[in-house]
Amino acid sequence: MKLAAPALVILGLLVACGSAQAVEPDEILPDAAMEQRARSISSGLRCLVCQNQSIDDSNAPLARDLRVLVRERLKAGDSDAQVMQFVEDRYGEFVLLRPPLSWRTILLWAAPPFALLLAVWMSARAWRRRQTRAAGSGAKPENLTPEEEARLQQILSNDEGGSTASRS
Amino acid sequence: MTIELGHFALVLALLMAIFQMVVPAYGARIRDPRLMAVAEPAALCQFGLLLVSFLALTIAYVTSDFSVANVANNSHSTKPLLYRISGVWGNHEGSMVLWVLILALFGAAVAAFGRNLPATLKANVLAVQASIAVAFILFIVLTSNPFLRVDPPPADGNGLNPILQDPALAFHPPFLYAGYVGFSIAYSFAVAALIDGRIDAAWARWVRPWTLAAWMCLTIGIAMGSWWAYYELGWGGWWFWDPVENASFMPWLAGTALLHSALVMEKRDALKVWTVLLAILTFSLSLMGTFLVRSGILTSVHAFAVDPKRGVFVLAIMTLFTGGALALFALRARDLRQGGIFAPISREGSLVLNNILLTTACATVFVGTLYPLLLESLTGDKISVGPPYFDWTFGPLMVPLLLALPFGPFLAWKRGDAYAAAQRLAFAAFAAVVVMALGWAFIHRGPVLAPFGLALGVFVMLGSVSDLAWRARFGSVPLGEAWRRLRGLPRSAIGTTLAHFGVGMMVVGVVATSAYREEKILVMKPGEQVSIHGYDITFRGVAPSTGPNYREETGVFDVARGSVPVTRLEPGRRIYDMPPEPTTEAGINAGWRGDLYVVLGDAQAQGGYAVRVYFNPLVRFIWLGAVVMFIAGGVSLSDRRLRVGAPGRAKRIAAAPAE
Question: What average pLDDT does the segment B491-514 reach?
């Protein structure tokens, strides 16, 4: 974070991969649909010698080899999944930018839904606790008398000058 | 001589910070007003000393004093003045000096503008602030001293990495640091409140402007970095989910959540414990970013500091401040009494939802960033967590957030009326549905969900404007009257609308450019033409040129629409003299509908050049959205109510007739 976040990204590219210009004109397949498939597969494969970059974005020689390889497999009639599997078998799981679900990555994939559930559960608990405490102390904020409501509106509109006042 | 003066001032600043850390805190403990009062001059003095120190280093850079090791390693005499100055923070040591300077600036600002803070709170805040300064100045002096001489001095320096020689990047780090370090104020306030064991709505009112200012700087800092990457990278990418970017994005997410929860605390005296925790976490994430980048834990080039001594030092600082504050929190949080209650459908409820989603998003980025590092250090297994992971996890969290966003301002505090809010958003929802339908009907490429994303952005934009329109009663009262009402609305309300509008703009820009980008990659010879999105682009040839410290090959492209000439684009490839590294300069024709983006590639063996032509629709909305958010923060800050110590005006507002 200290220095220019993307600056460092780019620095990485420059040092490891030269200036970032990826797919060369001579690599492009004549079949536009197949080329499109190749591009979307490429963007999910990591350039192994670069810093956090897909082979679609990198002009490192290795990335170029991989792009050509992907296109060759497609021309040979492989499905997208088969191409991915082929590259993974050769280079290992590290090459996949979206880590597949396995015992090693279970926590990685479970973390976001777990964090969401935890946050919802904690908020609900805190809310319930507030409600019961308020009920215990006899406060019934929901049922204000019309006079109280009017007074409240006045106070709030003075303070806020806006949202709640606009409801009147 | 000046460099020794700077060195000396840095050490004096360290002593001053120790003094500022110890004496006022002790004074606050024994309730001695004289001891507490020293915090104020100490903070100002510490800032003054660090300023001297920073200026001394800057002078060494401007005058190219290569007898200073740091200057010799990172500067060069042929560099233009701007980059000689920005070179000060373009390296590890100098950037740390800037870091503590901004830290001291914020401390001095609290000392100068916090005149009506309670004495003990102010003393504790400044003492905590000073303790952070002590840690980081020690870090500089012991491991990263920029004031060391080299003997004999080299004839010229090693130069600044050419990709850092760019106007946007010159100002990117100061804004970014102001953001990170600005959150230290929220942290100091939180720790001071925990030490004091007392916290109330007034606390939130004091904390909010500082948090807002820091958030503004971080927003614009991140946007600048993204914009720079867009035009400098050479293929128009603007966000990479790189660990270093995530390091700046996590404090932003947490800080955004903090802004919203502090609002609940200020208005309704609720969510106190949570707000304090969030204040601690936000700054802790900033510290973690420092650790990630400074320690060298992110492989190789990302870390300028490969020395493990530095890594361990920053890790210790991070552990101390995060762990210490969390321990204090665990001890004292029970003392903080919870405030007002509210129904689930209410302004508070919507802000809680905002906090749930933003903190979950932050946790997702956190896990995605650290998991590969952790896995590798524990088991040695290497996995990649790249953009697809974040698309799958972060993306879905943003959908409910954006859907709910426009409802928030329409709900009343304590108990809101969702049905009424929905009615008032009917126009925005209708427009969004129209956009979605048009998208599905007429755009036959890109992901099938893209029109939904565009509609979501439009809904947020129009929904936030609807709030102001409703408050000013556009449509139900004469236009002049509505305008008068609009002008009379509090600035904070206008700031809210603007900020949310900016978010909507950003969503539209992100979706449009990700889904509907067009590209042509081909070999072009002079005289040849290529068409993209209605533009005809003719390649005229390549001409060599030279700059102050680089040589460039410039491609010349004439752009026309039909027979009407539009512009001439001159993308180039530069080789810098020192260090001799290449950069790509894209040729960009910016417009409202999108950017035409041309990149000159390698010369081909069989003649001609590789050329990449892109059309990035609505891509400007991404950064314009950030600029609008920045302005929104400024508008909100200018609200009299937030300016502590403006009671006269506040009374007049109160006296104004409620509608």
Answer: 94
